[in-house]
């Protein structure tokens, strides 16, 4: 009979390399399976988790204002309401201004598009293709026939869009409702959540969560500033070139900048296309050059300077996170993936940091930009610390004697 703790003859015949490979393989399969289950659960609960994630982002942006109001004497129960009303007033005013500018600039855009289409039509006739009127009419008829043939799909797409709008409104209401409680009693909610953590590691988990939220505050602040700079830079360029709908396009660039690296580029391409249709290829080339310049300013100056070391992430990690977010939850996933990565980065760094072992979580001010986690002490400092502890023990022994 084989003794307890000794390998049987079958496992002893397996080469060590194969045993290690098998052990790593099943662990890898277990991790991938867990990640797949989590992604499926997130996708299934996206209608709830996405509004909560958006509310958390907004709470990171607005909580410093609530803290400042409470410091100047505004009651804690009233401060979130003041901030929310002020924020909604600002957002409503901006949206009203953008919609008004879009409505006023739409007739001019239609005229310029009509003129551009006429130019394209003349180029097709007189250019190197030398198409006749009959050929052009045939192409137009084919386009109309294609639209009629796919009328059912277009109608179902319109109905799907209407349902999406309804879900969007529901999500906005849920996000606003959640945001109210995050601003009013976010600290109490976090303390309640940490109760599920075992008592012996609760302080470390509390500290890691606070450092993660502090990095989220820094991320949202920096991203908002970068978005403003992108929108102003692109807007000034569009105004100089004479592209219509400057304000709506600048607002679109502002919103897109909240998705790092790719967001501002995609929305900027929309501005380039409108410049191409409305003002021609030269204007489109100028707008493209302005867009590239703004992106270079963002990536080489603004991002490193504003985000700093608290939420500094490798560009490859950012791109992969955005791609994974798109796969799991679409545009909303791309929006939330990088903030989630920044929070996890700071939280994990805090859990792995020896310098955070004896830090009181209440000393972390989540509303102030700071390091995600202190650096670990060097080996020399650790030796000194051990030496000092030994000296203390020797001193205590001498005192007892």
Helical fraction equals over 70%
Strand content: under 5%
Residue stretches low in confidence (pLDDT < 50, at least 5 long) are 1-6, 157-163, 376-396
Write down the overall geometry. Answer: globular
* Structure classification: mainly alpha
Order of helices and strands, N to C?
Answer: HHHHHHHHHHHH
User: What is the end-to-end distance?
Assistant: 57 Å
Give the overall pLDDT as a whole number: 76
The count of helical stretches stands at 12
Computed over alpha carbons, the radius of gyration is 29 Å
DSSP summary, beta strand count: 0
How would a crystallographer describe the biggest sheet? none
Q: Which features does this protein show?
A:
disordered N terminus; mainly alpha; 401 residues; 81% helix; 12 helices
Describe the structure.
With 401 residues, the protein is an all-alpha fold. The protein has 12 helices and no strands. Helix 3 crosses helix 4, helix 3 (46-71) crosses helix 7 (202-241) and helix 9 (263-279) runs antiparallel to helix 10 (281-307). The longest helix is centred in the first third of the chain and has 48 residues, at 79-126. Residues 1-6, 157-163 and 376-396 have low confidence and may be disordered.
């Amino acid at each position: 009979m084989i003794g307890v703790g000794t390998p049987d003859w079958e496992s002893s015949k397996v080469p060590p390399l194969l045993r290690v490979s098998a052990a790593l393989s099943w662990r890898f399969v277990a991790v991938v399976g867990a990640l797949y289950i989590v992604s499926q659960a997130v996708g299934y609960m996206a209608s709830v988790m996405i509004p909560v994630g958006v509310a958390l982002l907004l709470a990171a942006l607005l909580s410093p204002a609530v803290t400042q109001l409470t410091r100047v004497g505004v009651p804690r129960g009233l401060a979130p309401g003041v901030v929310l009303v002020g924020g909604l007033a600002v957002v409503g005013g901006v949206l009203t201004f953008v919609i008004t500018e879009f409505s006023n600039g739409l007739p001019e855009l239609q005229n310029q598009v009509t003129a551009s289409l006429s130019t394209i039509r003349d180029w097709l006739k007189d250019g190197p293709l030398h198409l006749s009127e009959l050929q052009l009419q045939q192409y137009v008829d084919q386009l109309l026939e294609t639209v009629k043939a796919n009328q059912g799909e277009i109608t179902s797409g319109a109905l799907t869009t209407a349902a999406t709008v309804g879900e969007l409104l529901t999500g906005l209401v849920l996000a606003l409702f959640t945001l109210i409680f995050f601003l009013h009693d976010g600290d109490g909610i976090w303390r309640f959540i940490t109760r599920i953590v075992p008592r012996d590691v609760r302080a470390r988990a509390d500290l890691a969560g606070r450092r993660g939220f502090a990095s989220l505050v820094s991320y949202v602040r920096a991203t908002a500033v970068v978005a403003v700079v992108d929108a102003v830079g692109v807007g000034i360029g569009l105004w100089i070139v004479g592209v219509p709908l400057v304000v709506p396009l600048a607002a679109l660039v502002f919103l897109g900048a909240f998705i790092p690296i790719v967001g501002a580029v995609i929305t900027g391409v929309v501005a380039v296309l409108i410049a191409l249709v409305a003002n021609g290829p030269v204007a489109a080339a100028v707008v493209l050059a302005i867009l590239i310049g703004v992106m270079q300013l963002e990536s080489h100056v603004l991002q490193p300077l504003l985000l700093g070391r608290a939420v500094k992430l490798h560009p490859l990690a950012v791109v992969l996170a955005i791609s994974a977010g798109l796969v799991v939850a679409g545009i909303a996933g791309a929006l939330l993936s990088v903030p989630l990565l920044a929070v996890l980065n700071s939280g994990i760094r805090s859990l792995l940091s020896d310098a955070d072992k004896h830090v009181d979580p209440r000393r972390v001010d989540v509303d102030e930009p700071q390091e995600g986690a202190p650096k670990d002490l060097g080996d020399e400092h650790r030796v000194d610390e051990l030496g000092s502890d030994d000296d203390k023990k020797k001193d205590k022994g001498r005192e007892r004697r």
